[in-house]
Design a protein that fits this description.
Chain lengths: 82, 185
């Protein structure tokens, strides 16, 4: 029989375990990073004069996607290793 | 049709540009003013390697290598972000000299954008200041434009070849005055 209190406690213990905290911190870090990245891209494209800021925006976006993929790969590796 | 034409076909067009306005000069701070900040970011890239060299045995013995690599890759993402934040602030600080006015646009953080402009016919005096050994060698300095209003000054900071910029602005101020005098006569 399902006990909602026990379920909640179980979920809470999973969350506070190592993997849960790492997942939460990783998701938060990614969210903060991509919010900041959006502001950089927006400013470069919206306010940049001439072609140079647009080129910078493309390089930044490419590098950000690549670094995010690499970091996600390492995150999966770390979670599997835990 | 060129797919990426939006990158190159926006040369020297800016918000508020008038149809009959021609861009004479497009200025940024001298690239050398970026060197200090970029060097800090570059040196920051070696920190995870230094940590690995110093605490490597401890990380390996506690089986924390995968966590260390994860934290390091997050750190490199942060460095990438700060590198481009610095470049963005540098790129978005511009002085545009047109045949009618000088426009200074400055980005001091994401949510603080300052734009000021000055009509060329209001210019009374232009002075150049190159102070210090590095600016003298690298050829950059400040350009101060004094307007008719006693206190109002317009500063172009750390721009390359300020003397040439001064000559160019002076030339166009003279042209504008001559045209104005001819119209009056």
């Amino acid at each position: 029989m399902n006990n909602p209190t026990l379920d909640l406690l179980s979920q809470a213990s999973t969350f506070t375990s190592g993997t849960g905290v790492v997942t939460f911190v990783f998701t938060l870090a990614m969210l903060i990073y991509w919010t900041g990245a959006f502001f950089i891209l927006y400013h470069l494209i919206r306010f940049g004069v001439s072609g140079q800021p647009k080129k910078l925006a493309i390089i930044f976006l490419g590098g950000s996607i690549l670094l995010s993929l690499i970091t996600t790969l390492f995150y999966v590796q770390a979670v599997l290793a835990a | 049709m060129d797919l990426f034409s939006f990158i190159t076909k926006t040369s020297y067009t800016f918000e508020g540009k008038k149809d009959d306005e021609t861009v004479l000069l497009f200025l940024h701070r001298h690239w050398f003013t970026l060197v200090g900040r970029i060097t800090y970011i570059f040196l920051g890239g070696f920190i995870p390697l230094a940590v690995l060299v110093v605490f490597g045995p401890m990380i390996l013995s506690n089986n924390l290598l995968s966590l260390f690599i994860l934290i390091s890759s997050c750190y490199y993402m942060a460095l990438w972000f700060f590198l481009f934040y610095t470049l963005t602030m540098y790129t978005l600080e511009t002085w545009i000299v047109t045949d009618k006015r000088i426009i200074n646009s400055r980005q001091c953080g994401f949510f603080d954008r300052r734009i000021s402009e000055l009509s060329l016919h209001n210019i009374q005096d232009i002075s150049v200041r190159i102070e210090g050994a590095i600016p003298t060698m690298m050829g950059y300095g400040d350009l101060e434009v004094q307007t008719a209003a006693a206190e109002l000054r317009f500063m172009c900071r750390e721009i390359p070849n300020p003397q040439d910029v001064k000559d160019e602005i002076t030339k166009h101020v003279t042209i504008i005055r001559e045209v104005h005098e001819r119209r009056q006569n």
